[in-house]
Structure formats: C-alpha cells, structure tokens
Amino acid sequence: MKIANIEFPQNPVFLAPMEDVTNPAFRMLCKRFGADMVYTEFISCDALIRDIPRTLQKLTINEAERPVAIQIYGREPGPMADAARMAESAHPDIIDINFGCPVKKVAGKGAGAGLLRDVPKMLEITRAVVNAVKTPVTVKTRLGWDENNKIIVDLAEQLQDCGIQALAIHGRTRSQMYKGEADWTLIGEVKNNQRMHIPIIGNGDVTTPERARECFDRYGVDAIMVGRASIGCPWIFQEIKSFLNGTETAPLTFEEKKEIIKGHVLSTIDWLDERRGILHVRRHLAATPIFKGIPNFKDTRIAMLRAETKEELFRIIDGVSL
Length: 322
What we know:
322 residues, alpha/beta
C-alpha cells in the first residue's frame, strides 16, 4: 500500500492522532512496537499562525518516527492554508486535516467534525490546503453528523476530487462522540466504491489483533488506525502485527510491561518536565490494562495517580506484583 510515494508493508497499522496523547514520547514508543505510521496531536491552525509556543512545540518530529503526519484543524480556508505551510516547514511526511474531532469546543465552532454540516466549506478548506503545500495531504473524518446524515460515501469521492492522497474514516457519527460501537459497514462501502482510488484507512474500536484481522478481511481497508486501545498499552501494535503476519512473538511479561510504562514516564518527563510529564502520563497509568484484575488494587491505583515525583511513582509501580 502506498500513500503518495510512501510505501507501507502489507496490512499497515497506524497510531491514530489523539489530543494530549500522541506527543513525541508516545509516538516513539508506539513506533518501537511496530506502528507503521504515527500522527501528531491535532494542531489548531489559528494558534499555529499566532505562534503560540505550546502549539509550535507540537510541530517537533524526530527522524526515527517517520513516516509521521502532522494533523491540523480549523474552520477557514485561508488560515488552514497558512498553517499547512508552517507545518510543511517541519518536514512531515504527510499533512493531515482533521474533519473528525467531535468535542464541543472544536466541532461547535465549525471546525473538526463540525464541518460535516458544511460540506462546501470542508471541500474549500481541503482544496486550499492541497494547493498550499507540496507535501501529500490526507483527511480524517467521520461517517457524518448524526444517524440521519451519514454522508461519507458521497463525501469520500468529493474529498478525493480535491486532491487528497488518502482518507481515514472513524466509524461513528459526530453525535455518537465515542459512544456505542463503531460501524464499519460504510467504511467498507467507501473502500469498495469503484470510483475511489486513494487508500482508505479504517478507525474505531480496533482493540484486539482478532478485530484488526476482521477489519482487513471483512471490509477490505488499506490500513487500520489504533487509537484509544493504545493508551497505556503501546505494545498493542506488536501484538496486532505479529497476529496479522502470522509470526510468533513471546508475550511481554508483567515486569517487562512495568518497565515500558516507567520508560514512557521518563521520556515524557524529558519532553516536558517532571511535574507536567507525570500529569500527562496519568492518563496512560489510569488506562493501562496491566493492573486490571489485581485484587485490592484501588488504594494503590489512587496513590499511583496522585504521585508527584518520578521516585514516588516508580516506588509504587515497583511494589506492584501479580
């Protein structure tokens, strides 16, 4: 499978872009475990063109994480084109447009999934970004605004006509947010549309190797994205890739997984600082499956999520056993 001139192995598995999750430390960790492409957190075009320091920091990418996509979002063609040019200066492999974020502060202001209610403007933004840069442009979106407006099959053709090089589809509507089950039937319909010639990437509820295989086999997608299932569990990419490729990889032990979590803490602290790094990693600590099922773990979990220094946090983690 290829996106523009970027070649991927058979059945590629991508790390989905996630706000406050896919920073460089986590992207590198997922890359280590086999993610075939990673995405930055989404970046506000308005904040980017205003040179907001925290937003500019999101443009940082490392050679070792390639191929890497920088994802931007906004509600007007001009600022989005300007932001795309700024993103291009960071030399990503792909510039991705977010037309899928469902949260109120984004969609409610006419950006992200909010543009599913204004397709002409969505297409105008897409054309503006494609024309502004030489870097391949892709789009990530949803099935539609709500159950009565699942427009993705026709929309996919229109986005393709704007010049994008690939389309990622989350199998939910905006109104669903992240609730319910992702519906892959329309993703499959887009992929099987003979008028579509760009790669189609499926996203939504890919939580196990078996589900990953089903998504490829049943719906024919060119690639899949793993999002929330990777939080606190970056080794999911290794598990999926091994299953898809038919190779036997020894499962990680509990102690090995603890060391991976600790390494993530350290790399995040290096990226930010100790206070902010530990705050950032708490989301991963809360979500990681490695501590689930341990008897009488509630108090330990609370202490772990309240720890304020790496020494305190590591002492708690090291004290946990099965």
